[in-house]
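Hi there, hope your week has been kind to you so far. For a while now I've been wondering how a particular protein folds. I'm sending you its amino acid sequence along with the backbone structure tokens. Could you read through the record and tell me how the tokens relate to the sequence? Take your time with it, there's no hurry, and the full record follows here.
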Amino acid sequence: MLLKTKEAIHNKVFHWAKEDYKVLVNLEVKNNDFKNVRLNFLVFSIQHITDISREEIIKELKEKIIFPCLKQLNILWDSKTSWYINSSGSFQIGGLIADTGVTNRKQIADAFGPAVHSGGGGLCGKDLTKIDRLGCYFARWVAKNLVAAGLATQLELKITYAIAQEIALSYEITFFENLKKTQEEVIKIIEECFPTKVSEIFELFTSSPITFSKLTEISNFGNFIPNLPWEKLNRVEIINEYLRRT
């Protein structure tokens, strides 16, 4: 899709498009059978000029990029497939003007290195309004409290977000040791025991002052810097109370 978008911009097929665009696809594959792959959701953001509506952008992208690619790759979609195309509305400021000067030290540099999966987002040069930074801290907080509550001895949590969406698109346990509940039960615990709206997570994590320069200097994780909100084990009792009720 990205290659076809690049070609379409270069060949003036999209008169309205600028060269800042990104795509995320979530595919449903059953039993490692890649013959019947279904598109669960698609996120497509593309920078554009002023004089075009979001409806026109969606129509052109689907007709000229998205649907042809899906058909070419034999990827199915249906009425339950979700489409998040420029879901923030306007995307007029992008490219170097929007991002020049951001150091953007990657998540993996401050996490567990190659021992865990990484979404590739950044932890520096941006505040907590950026979901790759906020979401990373949130995933850390959730996983740490689930382990502390005795639900597993190790746990890796994958959370998928999309631009301008109030809640996560999906949660997935991608690695665990000694997990005491099913994946579905753990996700239910997350939804019941933690704030799930991005705005609520942001308010919670910014309710006390954080010296972000210290995070860059020392570490984003662990107890090297005291009282980081995503390092607190303040959901353990809430989780245990929920488990007692259920």
Observations:
- The radius of gyration is 20 Å.
- Residues 1-85 form a domain with the GMP Synthetase; Chain A, domain 3 fold (CATH 3.30.300.10).
